[in-house]
Write a structure and sequence with these properties.
With about 150 residues, this protein is an alpha+beta fold. Helix content is about 45%, strand content about 20%. The strands form 2 sheets. Strands 1-4-5 form a 3-stranded mixed β-sheet. It has a two-stranded antiparallel ribbon with strand order 2-3. Helix 1 crosses helix 4. It is globular, with a radius of gyration of 19 Å. It starts with a helix and ends in a 6-residue tail after the last helix.
């Protein structure tokens, strides 16, 4: 278990370092505002082309949707599970959706198979990383900061 945590933590640090460098750039926000403006002018095909060409090397998108905290019914029948998906923007190979329903969290990975050949394994890695973070912050108690 300790070795698994060590590997997981090492993987997390590598990814975090790379993402931190990209977060310093204002290019994604500027790109989004420009393409939104072009789209509002009615030039959707130009906006789509701009998104494809100038996605600022984004490799993933993530979305979260809060669902009902309790079971809902449709025409008197209980809905046991909700399915969700996140359409990938042009040239962005990974999409992650977190949603909730009836006290459960549902994670969905949409990915280009050339980039993520095994989405289930990718999701398993994500859950391992989450567990490590959870354990580390719970060890620190009230002093943990995110």
């Amino acid at each position: 278990s300790h070795n698994k945590q060590s590997i997981s933590l090492s993987r997390l640090r590598k990814v975090s370092k790379i993402l931190s460098l990209h977060k310093l750039s204002t290019a994604p926000q500027i790109s989004w505002y420009i393409t939104a403006f072009i789209s509002k002018l009615g030039f959707e095909s130009i906006a789509k082309d701009a998104i494809m060409r100038f996605n600022c090397n984004a490799v993933a998108v993530m979305s979260n949707v809060h669902g009902s905290p309790y079971e809902i019914h449709w025409k008197g029948r209980p809905i046991k599970m909700l399915g969700a998906f996140l359409p990938l923007p042009p040239n962005v190979p990974i999409g992650i959706l977190a949603t909730s329903y009836d006290g459960n969290i549902i994670l969905v990975v949409e990915a280009d198979k050339r980039v993520v050949p095994d989405a289930d394994l990718f999701l398993e890695y994500m859950l391992e990383e989450y567990q490590v973070i959870k354990e580390q912050t719970s060890m620190k108690g009230d002093t943990a900061k995110m």
